[in-house]
Design brief:
It contains ten helices and six strands, in the order βαααααβαβαβαβαβα. α9 links the parallel β5 and β6. The protein is about 45% helix and about 10% strand. The relative contact order is 0.19.
Length: about 220
């Protein structure tokens, strides 16, 4: 674990315990539009862009992509609901891990499907990630599970694939990272069974950020 020159972190469920909020807001924003969206779907599709998730649901139900107006209505409602949710705490050990990596000269980045402007300030204030070290939904065309987000992070880092690692908690994120050819550490902090992560090719699996961070910091 001490061989990496750059580490790319997912945000929801890795840096922040925010997935319960996303589960609530996705389910209720779709429900307000008359569509049933199961809680597990929030975890299975975590990492997709908002538009990508909405289009996936519309294709399954109606055989077509959502219109721009439909995307705006559903994602706009989700954004409104997020403002009513409790503040998501940082995941146990993650701040210490990020700081320990930087102390050792390891480059750190965030790769997230979200593009809410307030998150940029939050990541800077709490973790010290500036905009150049954040790949978000506004930076990509395809998004996870396509390798595009992690390939952008790799390009920004200037490092070789074999010298980089990804930390993910979501199946879509694992698929994206592995498609980009990166060593992928999965940490199961959600409601899904482990096989959702292992079946998509993660190289290592942890059951909590606490255990992962403790072992990783000890190995630096």
């Amino acid at each position: 674990m001490n061989r990496f020159k750059a580490v790319f972190f997912d945000m929801d469920g890795v840096l922040y315990d925010s997935m319960p909020n996303h589960e609530f807001t996705w389910c209720h924003s779709f429900a307000d539009y008359g569509i049933t969206f199961n809680p597990e779907d929030a975890y299975i599709n975590e990492g997709r862009t908002g538009k990508g998730t909405i289009n996936l649901v519309f294709n399954k139900l109606y055989g077509r992509d959502a219109t721009d107006a439909e995307v705006a209505a559903i994602y706009g409602r989700k954004t409104e609901l997020m403002k009513t949710c409790p503040v998501a705490p940082m995941m146990t050990g993650m701040k210490e891990l990020v700081e320990a990596l930087r102390t050792k000269g390891v480059k750190t980045y965030v790769v997230t499907g979200s593009k809410q402007p307030t998150l940029m300030d939050k990541l800077w204030n709490e973790y010290g990630f500036d905009r150049e070290h954040i790949v978000c939904g506004a930076d990509v065309v395809k998004g996870k599970p396509d390798p595009e987000p992690y390939l952008i992070a790799l390009w920004r880092s200037g490092e070789k694939k074999e010298d980089c690692a990804v930390v993910e908690n979501a199946p879509m994120g694992v698929m994206s990272a592995k498609a980009a050819g990166l060593f992928t550490i999965a940490v199961n902090t959600g409601k899904l069974e482990d096989h959702y992560l292992t079946d998509n090719g993660c190289d290592m699996l942890y059951g909590s950020t606490e255990v992962m961070c403790r072992e990783w910091i000890a190995d630096l």
